[in-house]
Write a structure and sequence with these properties.
The protein is α+β, with helices and mostly antiparallel strands and 108 residues long. 16% of the residues lie in helices and 38% in strands.
Amino acid sequence: MAKAQVLTSGSISSNTEKLGEVTGAKRTITITQPGTKKPLEVELSDADTSLSGIASAINKANGNVTASVIKAKDGDYRLMLTSKSTGTDGQMSINVTGDDTLQAAIRL
């Protein structure tokens, strides 16, 4: 039975700490899946660069992915992305453009 792909970021000490460069520059998370016609592109403001902000922005985009923040233990939070599709159609590729600091921080 095919399962939905789940991706989890590396450990972040806070779910509300801003992780990106505070530049006012345009930054976009692009989630590509073989089973969708076009990638999900989520533009993030400076305020949206915390784990909670990223999860909220992805969920508001209403794509083929759900995002949540999990607390493994005190001081250990992670962004978790779950595909709504199963099998190869649900495989996810994640890329952050416009903010190398954010890309390195979430490491999906």
